[in-house]
Structures are given as structure tokens and as C-alpha cells.
Write a structure and sequence with these properties.
Chain lengths: ~160, ~150
């Protein structure tokens, strides 16, 4: 599989259809900020935001180069700095991920274990950054988002 | 000058109705304050601003990155921007309880310089100080999670 020019996950919250467009926008911004923050926090702990599992440790050679064993996807910081989210025009969903071509390729590579890469496939371990296909974010993240939505809906009732 | 913010305990309680009373006990005993400080230090050392909407801290300047690479700042790394050099600033994070509210502040004045971007420093928000600023909700979630774990013990 070739690395995409943009690598993102689309999240469409349920139960927000009755909200006005401006309210949906506000809610999606809250969700996006929470998602981005939580992804960065988990990755910083060397933990996948998708399956919640610890990332495989760095190879001895690479660990010696960067000065630590745990994989937190930090080298120069460009990959994680580029994590961002965008809300759809109709404000019913948001895309979170990597919208810069180079960073998208890197993120895709980590998530798939460098699938399709001429020499890194099968060598670099899979470190799931974003859900793909039918995957979802892990339950901790999903619960956090559910709370945000519920709180927002409750506040809009009163 | 210390930076003070308040944590809305009523809001925290709304997430933990099942442990409301014991949460108050934890708060009274100071456990919540210590947990909040630990969480904030941990988040900041990962290069993330705890203030909602601020994301990752702005990168170090090129000249500072060169100094890091030359080893002039010990084991410090180019990324993440951990706000950690001697530990003096992050170690100066304190909390106080007044009535049913928690207040957190940095005693080290360097925190204010970073928070407001004094001199040549870029703004790196360490605490929500503006009227419209708040912690990211993840901070609340982590605090509640930590307290729930403590309550189970």
C-alpha cells in the first residue's frame, strides 16, 4: 500500500443532529482539542491511542542514537507537531491526523509497520497512531469524548 | 509573581457522582492537589501545554537547539520541549485549598515569563490565566482517574 498524501481518521459523533450548526462547530472543536491532547499524551507515554498497548521499544542502535529506549515518536518533533484536526463544512464530523505529505507518510508508516516501504517493511514495528478501517480509538478516549458530548447536550437543554 | 487558577470542583464532581463524598475527603486531605500537580508536571514534560487549544509547546530556537546538540544543557533533548532544565521551575508548582476549591501556582518567576512570552521567549502556556482560558478536559479526566484509583486502595 502506498502512503497517502494525507493520513487522518474521520470521527462523526452520534446524537448531535438536532443541534444548530454553530453549536455543532463548538462541540466538534471541544472534541478535536480533547482528541489531539489525549493522543499526544498517550503517544508521549509510548502508548497507542488505538489499542492502548505500549509501543514496541526502540532498537538498540536507534535507542543509542536518540538517548532513550521508549518509543515516543519524538526525534525532531515534526511528526507530533503536525497532528491537527479539521471540522467538515457541514459541521457533522471532524478529521484528525496528519495533513502534511511528509508527516502523513511517516505517521502512516508507523501505524502500518512501514507497509509498502521498499526496505523498512517487516523491520520497523507497527505503532498504531490512528485507527484504520473499522478500528476505533481506545475506550479511554471514546469514553472521554462521550462525556464531552453528554455534557454539551445537557448544557444545551437547560 | 505566582499564577493562580481555580479548579472547578463542582464540574469535577459531575463526572464522579458515585464517589462524590469520598472525593471531598480526598480533596480535604490534599490528595487531589498532589495528583493535579503530578499530572500537570507530567503533561508539561511531554511538551504539551495543559491549556486547552495550545497544543504542543513552540519548538526551541535554532541557536538553543544547537546548544542542546553540543551537550551544553546536559541530557536535554531537542524534542519534546519539556520545560525542564534544572527542575527548579516545574518543582515550584504548588497548590492551596481554599474552601472547596483548589488553586495551583508556580512560585518560580520563570513560569510567568514562559506563560506570557516575556522578552525573547515565545508564549508557552503553563497555566490558564486568561478569563477565557481553561485546562484541557483530559486534565480533569486524568485527575478523576487518579482519584478513583486512590479510592479503590
Amino acid at each position: 500500500m502506498t502512503a497517502p498524501a494525507k493520513f487522518f481518521y474521520t470521527y462523526s459523533p452520534k446524537g448531535i443532529d438536532d443541534l444548530a450548526k454553530a453549536d455543532r462547530e463548538e462541540l466538534l472543536d471541544q472534541i478535536g482539542e480533547y482528541l489531539k491532547f489525549t493522543m499526544l499524551d498517550m503517544i508521549g507515554e509510548s502508548k497507542s491511542p488505538v489499542n492502548g498497548e505500549k509501543f514496541e521499544k526502540l532498537s538498540k542502535k536507534y535507542a543509542a542514537e536518540v538517548g532513550h529506549k521508549q518509543s515516543n515518536l519524538e526525534r525532531d518533533g515534526d511528526l507530533l507537531d503536525s497532528l491537527d484536526f479539521k471540522t467538515s463544512k457541514d459541521r457533522r464530523s471532524l478529521d484528525i491526523g496528519f495533513f502534511d505529505k511528509l508527516q502523513a507518510a511517516k505517521a502512516f508508516g508507523h501505524t502500518t509497520g512501514m507497509e509498502g516501504h521498499p526496505w523498512l517493511e517487516g523491520i520497523t514495528p507497527e505503532r498504531k497512531i490512528l485507527p484504520m478501517g473499522r478500528e476505533k480509538f481506545n475506550s479511554e478516549i471514546v469514553d472521554g469524548i462521550d462525556n464531552i458530548i453528554q455534557e454539551f447536550l445537557d448544557a444545551n437543554k437547560s | 509573581m505566582p499564577i493562580k487558577v481555580k479548579v472547578d470542583v463542582k464540574k469535577l464532581k459531575s463526572y464522579t457522582k458515585d464517589v462524590e463524598k469520598r472525593f471531598q475527603d480526598e480533596l480535604q486531605s490534599g490528595a487531589a492537589g498532589y495528583e493535579l500537580i503530578r499530572i500537570l508536571q507530567d503533561i508539561i514534560r511531554k511538551g504539551i501545554s495543559p491549556v486547552d487549544g495550545h497544543g504542543r509547546f513552540i519548538k526551541y530556537s535554532d541557536s538553543y537547539k544547537e546548544q542542546i546538540k553540543e551537550g551544553r544543557h546536559g541530557n536535554k533533548r531537542v524534542s519534546p520541549v519539556s520545560m525542564y532544565l534544572t527542575g527548579e521551575m516545574l518543582g515550584s508548582l504548588r497548590f492551596t485549598k481554599i474552601a472547596k476549591k483548589l488553586y495551583v501556582q508556580f512560585e518560580d518567576k520563570k513560569a510567568l515569563w514562559h506563560n506570557e512570552g516575556k522578552g525573547n521567549l515565545p508564549v508557552r502556556k503553563l497555566l490558564p490565566t486568561g478569563s477565557r482560558e481553561k485546562f484541557n478536559k483530559r486534565i480533569t479526566d486524568l485527575l478523576v482517574k487518579a482519584l478513583k484509583t486512590a479510592l479503590k486502595k
